[in-house]
Write a structure and sequence with these properties.
This protein is of the alpha/beta class and 282 residues long. The protein has helices at residues 57-64, 77-81, 96-103, 123-128, 142-154, 172-177, 195-202, 242-247, 265-277; strands at 9-13, 18-22, 52-55, 70-75, 91-93, 111-115, 132-136, 159-162, 187-189, 206-210, 217-218, 229-233, 250-253.
Amino acid sequence: MQRPVSPGLTHRPNIATMRNIVTDPTASAVADFRDLAFADRRPDRPGGRGLVIAEGAVVVERLLASNYPVRAVLGLAHRLDSLDVPSQVPTYEVTATVMDQIVGFHLNRGVLATADRASMPTIAELSARARVLLVLEGVNDHENLGAIFRSAAAFGVDGIILGPKCSDPLYRRAIRVSMGHVLQVPFVTAPSWPQTLYDLALEGFQCWAMTPYPPAVQLRSLPTTEDKIAIVVGAEGGGLTEVALAAVPRHIRIPMAAGVDSLNVATAAAIALHHLAGMPSD
């Protein structure tokens, strides 16, 4: 049975789904994807609808494989052909011109998907089943946050705890930079700070704070065989606050050449996680 046709939409059968061809950029069916260039209108921004927006074929694939309830997929024909979209997910095919008009800018990746947010574990549930946790304080740059999630996935981190002043990992830019791994690595917001750091210690986690300043020991001192380890990383520039440093008795640093005082926070976290994971360097 053919579904009702809305203004600006036509239907074309596809192997996996009934694909909707959108010719009118103002069609209500594609409202999830509209005006993404305007921060005050974006559905993944504060004041919006809190939607998850995946951009690019690889990220959309990871969204489709995640536990986030997918709302719709929008893309160019050849991009949609490469995806295995479940038949129950509304799929909208557009030309490059119509897509540009809908989203408000030229989207090189040619495909987007939206989803509702999924429920996250509680901090107690996350810590109970984790061996390695990453704890962030003040990481408020979306690109740094996305890169950290990508590294966390690469090196087998079991979850991320977001301390005060961290950005939302589910903003579109963070999801894109993470290559969709934000959708796979569990995360929770710290219910209290710095009490969460003390609570992790009470639960058996050996907590290590990253800082370039004495008396921090070199990264090689970070054990790779402990059952429970939490790496605590601070904001770009300022690093961890004195409150956080005081709550974590063990401090580590990455040795660097003379004249270089620090690394980008995402880079520093990746180096520490690589060491912790015991990955071969070749």
